[in-house]
Each structure stands twice: as C-alpha cells, then as structure tokens.
C-alpha cells in the first residue's frame, strides 16, 4: 500500500441547511476522499445545533440506539416518535423538534397560542424511567411558545390560575398562571442531570425575546406576539415569586419559545452551546489528536462562523494540536480568505457566484 493511502481523516461538519444533513455531508466527503486515497481511514463526528438531526448526530458520533414511544404532537394529537440512548445506556438525547417541532404541523395549523411542548416532556420522562441519568435536550425547530410548561407538566409540575384551576399548556395559558408547583417534578428528576443544547442568545421577553423574534415563523400575527410576550412576562413574574429565580436575561432563555428559561427554572437544566456538548460527549479533541487531517464545514461560511460557530470550534481544536484543517461550505463570504489569522488552511465552497443556486442546493452532495 502506498504510504499516502495511510492517511486518517476526521470529518466534523455541521449540516448544510436546506440541502444536506451533517451525516450526508460526511458521506459525500468520504466518497471524495476515497477517490484519491482508497485506503484512507475516516472518522466521523457529525455536528448539530440542537435542532432536527441532533439525535442522529450523537448516535453516529458515539454509538447507541433509538427508542420509539407514543407521545403527543404540538396540538396534542397521538404521535409515535423517538429519542436516542447513547452506548453508555445512561445518557439520552431528546430533540424538542421530534415531538413538538414545527415540521409536525401544516402551515395552516401553526399557532403558538395553541401549541404545547408536552410531548417532549413525555420523551424525557420515558428516558428517565428507562434509567437514564443524563439527559441532553436539543431545542431547535420548535412550534411552541409555552415557556416549557408543557414539558414540566409531563414530568409532574402543576400550573394553576387564580381560581386554582389548571391553565392551558400553551402560549395562551401563560398569562393565566398564578402559582407554580414543582415538588412532584423535582422528585421525578432527582439525581438526573439535564443539559440543553442551545445556540441562540435571546432573552425570555421583549423585542429580542422569544415571541417577537421567533413567533412569526411559528404562525403568530402581530396581536398574537403581544399576547405571547405578555404571557412570558407573567411566567417570569411567577417564577420569581414561587421559585425565587431570575431567568429572563440568561443567554438563551428565549430559545424555543421560552423553553430555555423554563428548562432552567423547572428542571434545573444547564444551557450549553451545541458544539460544546457534542464535542464533550464524542471526545472530539481526542479524535482530532488521532487524525492526520481535519475537515469541517457548514452551509454558509461567513463572519458569523468566526463568532464561535461549530466549524470555528473544530478548527481551533485542530490548530491547538497542529493539524491541517480544511473547511467546505455551500457558500462562503469572499472576504473571509483575505482576513488574517483564520484557523482554516483553506476554505472551499460549492457555489462560486456563477453556478445556478438551485442546482447547487439540489446536487450539493455530488458537488461536495
């Protein structure tokens, strides 16, 4: 065997949104590598931001299996969906999108005043009942704006109005909450560590909060936005009153319709950037050390990439250990390669300004 064929390549790429999942990116890259180095060894750590594909990314990176169970969709209709249990048998990965995601609804059904995260809570409950002591929850792709009261209710919490009646477990129910009871929930999650993959920094309410920033894509009109924001402010008031916690301004509190804040307040969760979570669980740095070459990428490489997104994290780890690192993208900002001190040895993009954009999207795997 030729010496050059002994190369070991680590592929740690994010998805090319709207085109390829992280795993599809990795498959395309491997095909390209094998054409040149038939005996090359490849190692894949798919990256995910907490949205759809997070379970697959963790399972592919470290091993494990999917668990299917019967829960409810955002409108409380029966749904069979899944979460992942990693190979240690004690760590579960749950996507909020799997049960409570926007993809579960038609365009006409989108309404964050009506949608609930209750089904996601049932997935977490099932994982705990199966003995999982570490729960990772990805918050991307939600159809909800309920501040995670649906999740908390499924795990034993109660939310009462001024008449001591249960409130609606949706965005519409937030304004009616007067008391929060979490003793049963806390007993149910005792000894369980909950970490949340969260890559947004929005506060709970206000013009940069959950409702105003993300509500429109979930079907909210201008009147709904006012009501939803008012509900999140009320939820924050009662959290302060009954739980003694200040969560509204925590970075990521507004993620997934306020689920970030709710997960902290009700479940004692820690919000962690998705890249940090998967790099920790997959032992990414160790795998980089063992590789000769590192490949990373995402749909669009631009100045936002440099502000700590996943490819930047991969590149910095690679350079820490003096490994060459190559970035691939669907599209790149032209000025990037003119900037000094970039940690990438090269940046390549499918779309160069001359090709047909739709063709690049539809045939991204081939071009990559």
Structure report:
The structure is a single chain. Helices cover about 35% and strands about 20% of the residues. The chain has helices at about 20-35, 55-60, 95-100, 120-130, 150-155, 185-190, 210-215, 220-245, 255-265, 275-280, 285-290, 310-320, 355-360, 365, and strands at about 10-15, 40-45, 65-70, 80-85, 90-95, 135-140, 160, 180, 195, 270, 295-300, 325-330, 345-350. A six-stranded mixed beta sheet has the order 3-4-5-6-9-10, sandwiched between helices. A five-stranded parallel beta sheet has the order 2-1-11-12-13, with helices on both faces. Strand 1 (about 10-15), helix 1 and strand 2 form a beta-alpha-beta unit. The longest helix has 22 residues, at about 220-245. The two termini are about 25 Å apart.
Keywords summarizing the entry:
368 residues; alpha/beta; six-stranded mixed beta sheet; five-stranded parallel beta sheet; 14 helices; 35% helix; 20% strand; globular
Structural class: alpha/beta
Low-confidence stretches: none
Distance from N terminus to C terminus (CA atoms, Å) equals: 27 Å
Average pLDDT confidence is 93
How would the global form be characterised? globular
Q: Helix count?
A: 14
Instruction: Please compute the radius of gyration using only Cα atoms.
Output: 22 Å
Largest sheet: 6 strands, mixed
């Amino acid at each position: 065997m030729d010496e050059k064929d002994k190369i070991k390549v680590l592929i740690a790429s994010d998805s090319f949104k709207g085109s390829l999942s992280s795993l599809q990116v990795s498959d395309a890259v491997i095909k390209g590598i094998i054409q040149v180095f038939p005996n090359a060894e490849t190692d894949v750590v798919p990256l995910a931001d907490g949205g759809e594909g997070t379970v697959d990314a963790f399972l592919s990176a470290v091993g494990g299996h999917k668990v299917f169970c019967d829960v409810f969709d955002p409108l409380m209709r029966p749904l069979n969906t899944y979460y992942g249990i990693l190979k240690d048998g004690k760590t579960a990965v749950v996507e909020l999108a799997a049960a409570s995601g926007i993809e579960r609804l038609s365009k006409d059904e989108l309404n964050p005043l009506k949608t609930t995260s209750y089904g996601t809570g049932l997935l977490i409950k099932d994982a705990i009942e199966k003995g999982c002591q570490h729960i990772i929850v990805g918050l991307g792709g939600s159809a909800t704006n309920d501040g995670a009261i649906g999740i908390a209710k499924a795990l034993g919490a109660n939310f009462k109005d001024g008449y001591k009646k249960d409130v609606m477990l949706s965005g519409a129910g937030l304004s009616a909450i007067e008391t929060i009871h979490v003793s049963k929930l806390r007993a149910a999650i005792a000894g369980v560590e909950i970490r949340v993959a969260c890559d947004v920094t929005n506060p709970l309410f206000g013009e940069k909060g959950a409702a105003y920033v993300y509500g429109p894509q979930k079907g909210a009109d201008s009147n709904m936005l006012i009501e939803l924001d008012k509900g999140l402010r009320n939820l924050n008031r009662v959290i302060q009153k009954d739980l003694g916690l200040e969560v509204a301004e925590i970075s990521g509190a507004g993620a997934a319709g306020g689920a970030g804040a709710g997960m902290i307040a009700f479940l004692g969760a820690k919000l962690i950037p998705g890249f940090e979570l998967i790099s920790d669980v997959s032992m990414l740095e160790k795998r980089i050390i063992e590789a000769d070459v590192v490949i990373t990428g995402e749909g669009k490489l631009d100045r936002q990439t440099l502000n700590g997104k996943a490819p930047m994290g991969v590149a910095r780890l690679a350079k820490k250990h003096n490994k060459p690192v190559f970035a691939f993208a669907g599209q790149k900002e032209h000025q990037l390669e003119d900037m000094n001190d970039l940690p990438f040895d090269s940046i390549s993009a499918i779309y160069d300004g001359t090709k047909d954009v739709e063709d690049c999207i539809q045939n991204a795997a081939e071009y990559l």
